[in-house]
Structure formats: structure tokens, C-alpha cells
Specification:
alpha+beta, 2 helices
Amino acid sequence: MYGTVSEIKDEVRKIDVEFKDDVMEVFMPLNGKNYMLKVINENCRAYCKKQKRIRQLHSGDERLVKNLINSRKEDILSQLKRCGG
């Protein structure tokens, strides 16, 4: 997944996912700060346990994305620290 991250001032209590035309916006709280991840949704793929295969993410996949973000939270945090976030 490729995209950008920005710190936002609005309070975010839990991970929220919004699908736009060509991007996926993920709002998430992390270490007392609130971030918005803008992910380019051209070739975002994730493993789906129900279908037992890797497939393209669509607008109904908020739960799948939340689980993916929760499982990769430490990696996201370390990337933010390396980039000065």
C-alpha cells in the first residue's frame, strides 16, 4: 500500500475507514495523536479469510482494513517515527 499520512486536529476515538474514488482514508489514534492515512486504492489487496484468497479492497471492506491496520500498528508507528511523525 502506498500513500501519505498527516496529523489531524479532530479527535479520533477508534479506527475509521472511508473509501473515496481513488483513495482510501483511514483515521486512527496512535500514541495520543490522531492521524489520517491516505492510501492510494489502485492495487490495495488483502487476504480475505472468508474467501481464502487475496483480493482487491472495495468500499464494503472496512472491517478487513481495520483488522489489517490493527495487526500492523507497530509497523506503522515505527515508520512514523522514522519519518519524523
